[in-house]
Amino acid sequence: MDKLNLQRLYAVENGLLEGPRFDGRSGELIFADARNGGVLSIAANGTVKTVIAHRRGIGGIALHHEGGCIVTGRNVAYKKLDVDGEAQPTIVLIERDEKINRVGFNDLTTDARGRVYVGSMAFVALEADLDDPALLAGAFWLIDTDGSVRRVAEEIRITNGTALSGDGRTLYLSDSGPRVVLAFDVDPETGDLGKRSVFIECKDGVPDGMAIAEDGSLWLTLAFAGKIIRYSAAGRPMQTFEVPNRMVTSLCFGGAEGRTLYVVTGTEGKNRQDKAYVYSAPVDISGISVPHARTPTGDKR
Questions:
Q1: Which is nearest to 109 in space by CA: 296, 297, 291?
Q2: Rounded distance, CA 13 to CA 287, Å?
Q3: Buried b / exposed e across 65-87, counting CB within 10 Å, b at 16+?
Q4: Phi-psi region at 73: left, alpha or beta (left = phi > 0; alpha = psi -120 to 50)
Q5: Beta-bridge partner residues of 164
Q6: Coil, strand or helix: which one is 42?
Q7: I need a surface site. Which of 19, 203, 205, 216 has the fewest CB within 10 A?
Q8: What DSSP designation does 86 have?
């Protein structure tokens, strides 16, 4: 087992921390607490503050080039950061639609043009038994820079971590139902997804959040196993790191030269640990930066 020099930056009781993104403009780590609600930030000096209050169920965050964030949950929405504790208008980009089994949304990522890829689920994640084989499958969506939305993949049972390769030609997606990481060919011009294959089969734990390093390696969290595994661009395990929390949910690169790994965790179901944590650790390779979203921010609902 390889070692990460993990340092605790934040702790919260009964938390389920998700969607970490490093904002190079402010030097802050942005993340959500899906269970307790809200989007929070950690500054370089360690100061923690709530930047979007109340909203629960956020499984993914994209930083927007105009400031604020795109967040998931009951819908996909653009939110400006709170001002003096006051919530700002919500700009809904995709609404839930129970008629097509689009009940909630989980993780997301952005491409070089600022388009947003996001997965939908046919159930409310915080309320469902994720091991129930009767759960309906969800889908995968693309929000273009003009605000138009189209479905680009189907039959994703439990959509989770999402990332694009450095050249933008491969999209990786954790499907936590069958415990696999899928790989899709991507047309960078249109954003359309093509050939689909199983990139990784996970024997231990549940594939969750992911990030890509500059060498093309994929860093994957394994929830319920307390592990991060680094895979080569060919899908071969390179390193395995232990995290002192079984429910390790997601990670991202950030800091100086992208050589800090940020890791977030959660407390577990009926046997919840006391606290969820945000960790940081220095690493010897830089992560690729995730582009800012460029979707509409007009005052529409």
A1: 291
A2: 30
A3: eeebbbbbbbbbbbbbbbeeeee
A4: left
A5: 171
A6: strand
A7: 203
A8: B
Residues 22 and 30: their CA atoms lie apart, in Å, by: 6
Tokens representing residue 4 in the block: 């990460």
Q: Are the C-beta atoms of 63 and 293 separated by less than 8 Å?
A: yes
* Domains (range + CATH), the chain: 7-282 (2.120.10.30)
H/E element, 173: strand 170-175
Per-residue pLDDT of the chain (301 residues; tens, 9 = 90+): 799 999 999 999 999 999 999 999 999 999 999 999 999 999 999 999 999 998 999 999 999 999 999 999 999 999 999 998 888 999 999 999 999 989 999 999 999 999 999 999 987 766 666 667 677 889 999 999 999 999 999 999 899 999 999 999 999 999 999 999 999 999 999 999 999 999 999 999 999 999 999 999 999 999 999 999 999 999 999 999 999 999 999 999 999 899 999 999 999 866 555 799 999 999 999 999 999 999 999 744 3
Q: Is residue 115 within 8 Å of 142, Cβ to Cβ?
A: yes
What is the reported pTM? 0.94
Q: Are strands 7-13 and 275-282 parallel, antiparallel or unpaired?
A: antiparallel
Q: How far apart are CA 176 and CA 174, in angstroms?
A: 6
φ, ψ of residue 100 to 5 degrees: the values are -115, 25
Comparing CA positions, the residue from 150, 185, 180, 140 lying closest to residue 165 is 185
Gap between the Cα atoms of 23 and 41, Å rounded: 10
Supply angle C-alpha 34, 111, 158, rounded to 5: 40
- DSSP code at position 136: P
